[in-house]
Design a protein that fits this description.
Elements lengths: L1 H18 L4 H30 L4 H21 L3 H6 L1 H18 L1 E3 L2 E7 L2 E3 L1 H19 L1 H6 L1 H19 L4 H17 L4 H21 L1 H11 L10 H13 L24 H37 L3 H26 L16 H31 L4
Antiparallel strand pairs: 1-2, 2-3
Helix pairs in contact: 1-15, 2-3, 2-13, 3-15, 5-6, 5-8, 6-8, 6-9, 6-14, 6-15, 8-9, 9-14, 10-11, 12-13, 13-14, 13-15, 14-15
Length: about 400
Amino acid sequence: MEFLTRTKAYLLGAEEQRAAVYDRQLLLLAIILMMVGLVMVASASLPEGIALGDDPFMFVKKHLVFLSVSLCAAICVLNVPIVFYERNSVRFLFVAIALLIVVLVIGRTVNGSTRWLSLGPLNMQPAEFAKFSLFIYFSGYLVRQKSLLQESYKGFVNGLLVIAVISTLLLFQPDFGSVMVILTTSVALLFIGGAKLVHFMALCVVAILLGVLAVILSPYRMRRITSFLDPWDDPFGSGYQLTQSLMAFGRGSFSGEGLGNSIQKLEYLPEAHTDFVFAILAEELGFVGVFIVLMLQMLLVFKALQIGRRSLETDQFFAGFLAISIGVWFCFQTLVNVGAASGLLPTKGLTLPLVSYGGSSLLIMSCAVAVLLRIDYEYRAQKVSMSNSTTPS
């Protein structure tokens, strides 16, 4: 009888392990986007590699290193329980603030922006870590202060103060694009957490006024806005990058010029393998390639939101808020990157998630996907455990 009991327990454990697997579709989407990014970075960076290091594969080799490190980090993150992030959400925020202060003091300046910390041969961008850390903090904040947020304006204001601190440090770099991502995602979380509509109306007014003020007081932001409104007015000056990007989209047409056949990447389009890799993709793969990549990004975002919704329905509130924040983050950053490359939005210097060249962005976003996989795994494990507990012996 004891042997039968042990056998039954073993079989139930094996069944639970089989059922509580990771979301293979989400994992496949992330890997496909990474492979698309590797191919497009390889294609777009060849001329830049020859010009800077006399090595056409210079950036491809670096990107492969970034990919390897990101995948190793993602595997480590995958084994960390979600409760760890909830318990240490405030610590994550303090570390992010400390890094943003350090980068302003000893950071590396490139093109007028102080955004990078040199770690030997590698450069770290604290803004990417700050985004993720803030979303982890807000997910915990919504759980801890749920009643205060829903019943009083204090909960909403306290959340805005945290956003203001992070945003101010980012504006000193300056990194207006990351501020927009943080503001949009955090406000979306506050809305989902139950903040009152009147608070959002007041916030929208304040955000618009501050945005206009930030543009007026900064000459380079004003140039970006004017070049966005009419890039052809100064095609060899402030509108140069956007006009070259639009030419890439125009040349791509429906089916593209073919992989590797871009003209704009031949040092006509600046940042072709980073912020504007989507323009090279459009030129080489055309509307078909653009549609496929956007569909992949949309499916990844949909997966994140679906995982978040399921977690909230099973009272895993922290995990649900965190998954939703990752979905909104990926969605908005994709929107800004594609919008900037296609002339629908002013240029912001944001990467295309999991596709663009950039070690910090790829590392943090790979870890974010791993967190999504972990949230989904714990949801499945809880579901299997509950079904086993209700099964008559």
